[in-house]
Amino acid sequence: MVVVALVLAGLAALVHVYIFVMESLTWTSAKTRAVFGTSAEEAEATKELAYNQGFYNLFLAIVTAVGIVLVAAGSEAAGAALVFAGAGSVAAAATVLLVASPDKRGAALKQGVVPLLAVVALLVGLLA
């Protein structure tokens, strides 16, 4: 079950690296604006906020990835703590998005289900 958890956490980390790219690098592009449903004017007005938010996503992905590497290298306790922190934070942020903006349910589920499953699978795997 731990391996399943690490694969799921890795997928969640990859999604958040992609979100980082969109928010911090391509925020004002037509393709990214279509994903987020923003106009050119809205994207231009919010690009500094998106840039910063993108880095939050990147840092959570890095924490999760380092945790995966540590578990794989045999440092299960430290690695699991980082996976719980990274994937758990991503799942919690998705929950906040769902509660605060119910119209963004699809985005919240896309961002939050996989890391939540990773956290649950890791917990089950460690307790087994």
From TrEMBL:
Keywords for the protein's UniProt record, in alphabetical order: Membrane, Transmembrane, Transmembrane helix
Pfam entry (one): DUF1304
Highest taxon listed in the record's lineage: Bacteria
InterPro entries with a match to the protein in the record: DUF1304 (IPR009732)
Signal peptide stretch: none
Spans through the membrane: 54-73, 80-101, 107-127
Keyword match DNA-binding: no
Coiled-coil intervals: none
Stated name of the protein: Epimerase
UniProt organism field: Nocardioides luteus
Taxonomy of the source species: Bacteria, Bacillati, Actinomycetota, Actinomycetes, Propionibacteriales
